[in-house]
DNA sequence: CCTAAACTCTGTACGGTGTACAAACTTTGG
DNA sequence: CCAAAGTTTGTACACCGTACAGAGTTTAGG
């Protein structure tokens, strides 16, 4: 069989693990940072992955797994399965600035992504949806979850900063925004996340 | 009054317009590309905007405006207002690869963003929601819309590429995915976008 | 057994990014 | 008229992804 050269010092798994460590350290995933953590020259990474977006995909898949795929399985109520996993994924990603951007540079086609998809379809099946609606609903949920996390991340800043921005909104021109500013101040919180997800799930099963 | 030095050759508006032209040309917004289009050295941009993320914010705001703020106003049915604007925004952003990423690098606090927020609040008010729910609903809608566009963008690739990826899913391990592959093939289309938005709106006003 | 093919890893380098800093230049207020 | 304030530029730095040639290592085939 085919392995002729020297046996590889690393594996894709190790590369991805190193990338997660980079994320854990609060830095962005870069080929150089990952290589540095593996005591290897940057080019070596390209022996295991074709390009940066493949690395991003693989890391994103690992993050989906780290959120806890078990939460999506089992015989618990379909709604809890989805909500629990969504909240866990949110936590995993928000704890690691720069993790969310990985989901935008490449499609999600790893093993964990497929498992998430499969189990979402199962959950919506238990909720009474037909195949087509289950498929559409699964994608709608991933859309909401990843969108919410991305917005939370972009809208970050320090808490007083955000309050100051809201206070600076001219109440004359934007009365409704001014009136609801206290709510908007909590938009990036877990409560808003769960609320929106709940409404979406309500809509998805209401037909 | 304060303007002492030479009068500026440019304005923030012109800088943003140049950035849009860069996007229209299919390139990413970069300080150098924008400066080049204005026949100016890159550093000059920093006279008008503090840093890249401020440029990104300003360009994102312009894109929100380009989608057509009028669609969100008027006395048409609240649901049509929201759906029409959402679809228009999707078109504006998907026509310009690299436009979506601008929304992730900075919070949305420009004039157009505020207008969108104000009019969403108005629409949900007409739908019968209280202030707090209107606020939460507005954010949920922006979450879904921007999330959907971001995923569409990441999942891009050529059409046969996507079909090949779906066909490569092992049917034994992921039977539900395999069974619903034809639907998943259209996840990045406008129909799926509208469907998910409709379900979300259903849920938001169902209480 | 030995050579040649296949494979890993490195050194070097290129073009791209955001942006800091000092200097040159232009305008206006005191 | 001069000094302060503002604009623009030249140069430079650190980072990014990654192409390419070569060195070194292992195994398959003759």
Summarize the structure.
2 copies of one chain form a homodimer. With 207 residues, chain A is mainly alpha-helical.
Please give the structural blueprint.
The structure is a homodimer of 207-residue chains.
Chain A: H1 12-24, H2 31-37, H3 45-48, H4 52-66, H5 78-94, H6 111-126, H7 131-154, H8 159-167, H9 175-179, H10 181-184, H11 190-204
Helix pairs in contact in A: 1-2, 1-4, 4-6, 5-6, 5-7, 6-7, 7-11
Chain A binds a DNA duplex (30 and 30 nucleotides) through residues 2-9, 30-32, 40-44, 46-47, 51-52.
Verbal overview:
The structure is a homodimer of 207-residue chains. Chain A folds into two domains: 1-49, Arc Repressor Mutant, subunit A; 69-205, Tetracycline Repressor, domain 2 (Orthogonal Bundle). The first copy, chain A, contains eleven helices and no strands. Chain A is flat. The first copy, chain A, is mostly helical and 207 residues long. In chain A, 39% of the residues are buried. Chain A binds a DNA duplex (30 and 30 nucleotides) through residues 2-9, 30-32, 40-44, 46-47, 51-52.
